[in-house]
Amino acid sequence: MATLLRLDRVSKAFGSLQVIDELSLHVARGEALGVIGPNGAGKTTMLNLIAGRLRPDAGSVSFDGKDITRAAPHDRCHAGIALTYQIPHPFGGMTVFENILVGATHGSLKSERDAYATGVALLELTGLAHTANRLAGSLTLLERKRLELARALATSPRLLLLDEIAGGLTEGEVHELVSVINQIRVGGVSIIWIEHIVHALRSVVDRLVALNFGRTLVEGKPDEVMASPEVRKVFLGIDVE
């Protein structure tokens, strides 16, 4: 499969703290990549470097064969990169449908007519149709997570960045969310998903990368990564000979 996103020896420090350390990573078209790592491993910083919310100190980021290392966040969004946030922040005084329309009109520059059609389809996909006319500020956590996902999808991404979107949900809610994400995959959208709920990742992703101190610790098929001695030592405190 052709490469859609590539990070080449990317580094990022905050003062004297090196958060990302010469990280190289790639995602193929249509691939779902899972990312795990302990707190402070640089996972969210990595997503922000891809989305353009942060700029690297060194290295390069390319998308669809073009260098976007210095591209602004809105330009990356228009090119097809969408980011969901770990803590959803909807426009609380707007309805659910209006929130989605904002993503469609400003994120992908759709016409009003196309934005409306996109909004209706995403309400159905994300299970929010019954909340369409409710104020976003009144939603439950699961509904807010679904809306965060719908707003990102409204920008018509080719690459969807998910930052612990299953965090804080019950087991049943996680199962529902995984079902939606798998439907997104079927639609051909590439995904990078950071998540601590590993069984959710393993039911979606093709490949898993374990980060530690801003570098790749292990990379490969999910079962192989989770069984590796390095990952067991870092994540479980088990020293395997």
Supply database-style keywords.
241 residues; alpha/beta; Rossmann fold; 2 domains; 4-stranded antiparallel sheet; 10 strands
Provide a brief overview of the structure.
The chain has 241 residues and is an alpha/beta fold.
Give the CATH H-level superfamily of the largest domain: P-loop containing nucleotide triphosphate hydrolases
In which order are the strands of the major sheet placed?
6-7-8-3-9-10
Question: Mean pLDDT across all residues, rounded?
Answer: 94
CATH A-level architecture of the largest domain: 3-Layer(aba) Sandwich
CATH topology of the largest domain: Rossmann fold
Mind explaining what this structure looks like?
By secondary structure, this protein is of the alpha/beta class. It folds into 2 domains: 160 residues, 3-Layer(aba) Sandwich (Rossmann fold); 67 residues, no CATH class. Helices cover 37% and strands 26% of the residues. A 6-stranded mixed beta sheet has the order 6-7-8-3-9-10, with helices on both faces. A 4-stranded antiparallel beta sheet has the order 2-1-4-5, with helices on one face. Helix 3 crosses helix 4 and helix 3 packs parallel to helix 5. The model has no long low-confidence stretch (mean pLDDT 94).
Strand-helix topology:
Layout: E1 3-14, E2 17-28, E3 32-36, H1 43-51, E4 58-63, E5 66-67, H2 73-79, E6 81-83, H3 96-107, H4 112-125, H5 141-153, E7 159-163, H6 171-186, E8 190-194, H7 198-202, E9 207-212, E10 215-220, H8 222-227, H9 229-236
Helix pairs in contact: 3-4, 3-5
